[in-house]
Specification:
Blueprint lengths: L2 H13 L5 H10 L2 H16 L2 E5 L1 E4 L29 H9 L8 E4 L9 H14 L4 E4 L2 H10 L4 H11 L3 E2 L9 H8 L5 H13 L3 E8 L5 H18 L2 E8 L15 H14 L5 E2 L3 H4 L1 H7 L6 E4 L22 H9 L4 E5 L5 E4 L20
Parallel strand pairs: 1-9, 1-10, 2-3, 3-4, 5-6, 6-7, 7-8
Antiparallel strand pairs: 10-11
Helix pairs in contact: 2-10, 2-11, 3-11, 4-5, 5-7, 6-9, 7-9, 9-10
The chain binds ligand V47 and iron/sulfur cluster.
Ligand V47 binds next to β6 and β7.
């Protein structure tokens, strides 16, 4: 709309000055793809240059049966239909852990449905068993949705609960369960699970124990731009207080096989605009991650020009959350070589990281073997 408003925001970004909520709303309403890409890339390159992170991880989803009924969820089965789903025992999960004994993975990401038998003791014992078996494997597990439920059920405070999880071996909390914080939307799509204040309080307590976590936003469904700004604003505010968030992960709503299948999915242009505005607005977050199983490999590569500096991990076909919601990647799995090739093919420098962004291996001088040339039909730059 107004060129002077755009120029004023561009100047703030150039000077490293924080943009306001009004500025962010303005960008959502009026920012062009080119303007947003230019600003977001400026921020990204100031922070990371061309460095682009990924890790080697796998997922364990203890169950897809859930007492909640979030309307966007394609993955969960109601308790009355539990025969259609899975419910792992400790032994089932330890078998999965042991199957990676010879693999150079650094992280296990554990998240799934909410069920009464999966209580505080169950998870304490699981984390302890994993740590006894493989002490160096980083456990990134559960979200405030599960924590709120299990602590309430056991009648313990969030503080006591998170202290017990830490003592049992939990290393970090993934970003899930955030959805959209604003009650106008949250009550419609995820009404019966923990609310925004509870989600934020659990992360706050975890950060104050000296620990790190991630944050997500499920976008592109019934929310409007003001709801997205409100969501980002609550995250930026908590980060100002604790500095415990590492990474922000926008999650594109996928519409297959859920109660919101009538809602159209966002376009790739909107996805890139959303990454860019998140990067520009969240000036106190170090990283913005594109979760490739959800958006597909090509959009993940494009996102690296719109503020994203992290592509998550190899994943190894161990998550069903997105494939069941219609994501491009039906059997998400990439080798380290694939990820390195994808990143190099768009002119960035691949770095394998651990969960806390320590460098595991620097692939910036990696030279391709022939079979990886022309990955995804894009030019390989070295
Ligand atoms: O909270 C569920 C989302 C999240 C759908 O922290 C859906 O590193 C889109 O949080 N369409 C769980 N999204 C996954 C998650 C995550 C993923 C990768 C890395 C990290 C991290 C965290 O998945 C849920 C929900 O917001 N989700 N169904 C769907 N139909
Ligand atoms: Fe359950 Fe999580 Fe699905 Fe909601 S999003 S129904 S809490 S598994």
């Amino acid at each position: 709309m107004s060129e002077s408003t755009t120029r004023a925001i561009e100047k703030k970004v150039q000077d490293g000055v924080r943009i306001s909520d009004e500025d962010a709303l303005y960008l959502f309403e009026h920012g062009t793809l080119a303007q947003l890409g230019k600003m977001a890339n400026q921020v990204r390159e100031r922070l990371h240059g061309d460095r682009t992170y990924f890790n080697r991880n796998f997922h364990i989803e203890p169950t897809n049966v859930c007492i909640y009924t979030c309307s966007f969820c394609s993955y969960s089965r109601l308790i009355k239909n539990r025969g259609e789903g899975w419910e792992y025992t400790h032994e089932d999960m330890m078998e999965i852990i042991r199957s990676y004994d010879d693999a150079p993975v650094t992280e296990v990401h554990i998240v799934g449905g909410v069920l009464p038998q999966f209580d505080v003791l169950f998870y304490e014992q699981l984390f302890k068993a994993i740590k006894i078996h493989r002490p160096d494997l980083h456990i990134k597990a559960l979200t405030p949705v599960e924590y709120h439920y299990i602590f309430k059920k056991d009648k313990i405070s969030y503080q006591e609960g998170m202290e017990r999880m830490k003592a049992a071996g939990l290393d970090s909390i993934p970003g899930g369960g955030a959805e959209i914080f604003h009650p106008e939307v949250r009550e419609k799509i995820a009404g019966d699970k923990c609310n925004a204040d509870q989600w934020l309080e659990i992360h706050q307590i975890w950060h104050k124990l000296g620990m790190r976590s991630n944050a997500t936003m499920l976008y592109g469904h019934i929310e409007n731009h003001a709801h997205r700004v409100d969501h980002l604003s609550r995250l930026r505010k908590l980060q100002e207080e604790t500095n415990g968030f590492q990474t922000f992960i926008p999650l594109k709503f996928r519409n297959k096989g859920n109660q919101m299948s009538h809602v159209a999915e966002s376009t790739v242009v909107e996805d890139l605009r959303n990454y860019a505005i998140a990067r520009i607005y969240l000036d106190n977050f170090d990283h913005v991650k594109a979760y490739w199983p959800m958006i597909g490999r090509t959009t993940a590569q494009l996102s690296l020009a719109f503020g994203v500096d992290d592509l998550d991990g190899t994943i190894d076909d161990t998550t069903k959350i997105y494939s069941m919601a219609g994501a491009e990647e039906q059997n998400p799995s990439l080798s380290t070589k694939d990820l390195v090739a994808m990143i190099q093919a768009v002119g960035r420098l691949p770095i394998e990281r651990d969960t806390l962004y320590g460098v595991v291996e620097d692939f910036t001088d990696h030279v391709f073997e022939d079979e990886y040339r022309g990955y995804l039909d894009l030019p390989v730059l070295n």
